[in-house]
Amino acid sequence: MLQSIVELANDGILVFNDRLEVEYANRTISQITGYEHARILEMTITDLLGNESRALLEGIFSHPEKYGEKTCTEIRFPTASGEIRNAEICIAFATPPVGPDMAYAYVRDITDEKRIGNELREANEFFKNLISSSVDGIIAADMKGNIFIFNQGAENLTGYTAEEFIGKVHITQLYPESVARDIMRQLRSPDNGGIGKFNPSQLNLVSKNGEEIPFQLSASLIYDSMGKEIASVGIFADLRPRLDMERKFQETQLQLISSEKLASLGKLAAGIAHEINNPLGGILIYSSLMMEDLAEDDPKRQDLARIVQEAGRCKEIVKSLLEFARQSEPNMEPVDINRAITEGLFFLENQAFFHNIQIIKKLGSSLPFALGNAGQLKQVFMNIIVNAAEAMHGSGTLTIYTSFNREHNNITIEFTDTGEGIPEENLTRIFDPFFTTKDVGKGTGLGLSTAYGIIEGHGSKIEVRSKVGVGTTFTILLAPCPETQPILENRPSEVIGCAQGHHSFKGEPSGMSAVLP
To answer: Taking 80 as the threshold, does the pLDDT of residue 362 lie above it?
Structure first.
C-alpha cells in the first residue's frame, strides 16, 4: 500500500545508496526525466540529474553534519531528449525500514512554474515601466483612499514625490472630499461610461505650491476574482498646455479680427479725413483773414481766435487719421533703434511730468539696424513712453529694453511700466481709433491706433500684455536691415546701406544699462 502511494505521488522520488546509485525510482521520475524505469536503476543520481546536482549530493554521506533533516535546492538538468528543465530537489537521510547508508531524493519539475513566474515578472516590469514612463499622472488608491501608486507623471503634475504620497497621504489631499465622493458615486453608476468606469472629465487639483491645476481625469475601479472592489486607478492628464494653446489660438483669432477691423476703419478714416480736410482748411484761412481785418480791441477777435484754435485742433485730429489710414509705404531706411529711443527720450525726460519717473534703459549691444522710417518709429516710441508716464500718474519705473533675436531674426523692443495696468476687456480695443479711457478733452484716442498703423506699415507687429495693478508691457518686433555694406570705421555715425552696428551715446557705454533719474 505504501509503495502504491509513493508511485502515485506528484513528485519524483528516488532512493540512492552511498555510492549514489539509484536503488528505487517511482514512475513520476520517468515522466520528469524521460528515461525508462529500468535505465534509471542502472544510473547514479548525479548522472540522472546532471552536473548541477553533484554539489548537493556528493558530500551527503562523507559529511552528513552539513545536512539537516531535509536540504533543498533548485537545479537545471538534462532530460533523456537533451531538453534542459528546472527542478527543485530535496534530500534526506533514509530511516528504517529502508536501512543505513541510504538517502531519499524528492524531485519536483518546476519548469512551467518558473516560466510562468518569469513571464509574470516580465509583465509586471513592463507595466511598471509603462506606468512610470507615462507622461500623464497615474495614481491608484485602495478603497479607503490610501495611495499606493504615484508615478513620475503624477509627481510632475502635483509637485509632490511618490515618497511623500505612497502609504502616507489620502486621495482627498489632491481634491476635496466631496469631489472624491462624487467620483466614486459615478464610478458605481452606469451613467458615466458604465459601472466601474469614469469617462474623461475636467477637474482641478491643488499642487504642492498651492497652484490650482486643471486636469482631465479618467478613472476605473479594480475588482478581485470574486468581483469585490479593491482599488481605484485614475489617469490625470495636465490640461495646462492644451488650455494655453487654446488661449493663444483665441488671441490670434482676436488679433486677426482686430487687424481686419482696423483695415476697414482705416479706409473709412481716410475717406472722412479727406472730406473734412478741405472745408477745415477753408475755415482756418477765412477765420485768419477776418481777424486781420478787425481792430486789436474788437471783441469779435476773441471769438475768431477760438475758431482758429479749435479748427487747428480738428486739423491735428485729421492729420492723425490720415497717418493711421496711410496706404502708401513709408520711406524705408536703416534705423539705429537705440539712437531713435535715446533721441525720443531727450525731448521727454526733462519735462516736469517725468521728474518722478525712473527710466531704466537696457539697450542691447551690437544691435543690427532696423529697416524702417526713423521719424515714424520715433513717433511710436514717444507715444508709448508718454502713455506709460500717464498710466503711472507721473511716478513709477519705465524700463526700455532692446535685443536681437538671432533665432527668429528680429529686433525686440519692450517698454514696461509700473502703472495701473489695462483691464482685460480693453486689451483688444486699445488700438481702435478714438478708443480712450482718458477724460474728455485729454486725448483723441488716435495715438495707439496710429502707432499700430505705423508698425503694420513696417510689416511688423506690436503686442501688449498687462495686469491691472502691476503694469503694462508693449513689445515691438522689427525686421533687421539686410546687410549690404559695413559701417566705415572712422565714421561711426554714417551708414551705407544696412549694416550690423551699434552707436554709443555720450555718458552711456555700449551695451550697459543707464538709469535716468
So the answer is: yes
